[in-house]
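Quick note —
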Amino acid sequence: MAKRILIVDDDEMVLIALEELLKPEGYEVHTVARAREALKILEQDGFDLLILDIIMPEMSGFELCRKIREMERYGQTPIVFLTAKSREEDRAQGLEAGASLFLSKPISPDKLLEIVSDAVQ
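Predicted structure written out below.
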């Protein structure tokens, strides 16, 4: 059974690029552009990995991550921030919010595939 990944980012090009990268590797990829939409989907379906942006309308990725961690079914699910933010305080805030990993864009496709593979083992 394919591992299920939810990607939340308000940049449509990022969503398309990540989907094009991950689907050929056998992952079932779902993308959403809004945090509130992500929360609704997470209540209905189970995912093996979540990839979040930080800067989004409605709710930041930090807030979204905290809300996801409050959901019983996602207490141990890997959450990866993939963001343009790269300051150490952003990284610390992301990990404090409950993220498993904090990655700064740009990242090489091969490196991202390696990280995703390790995260969904």
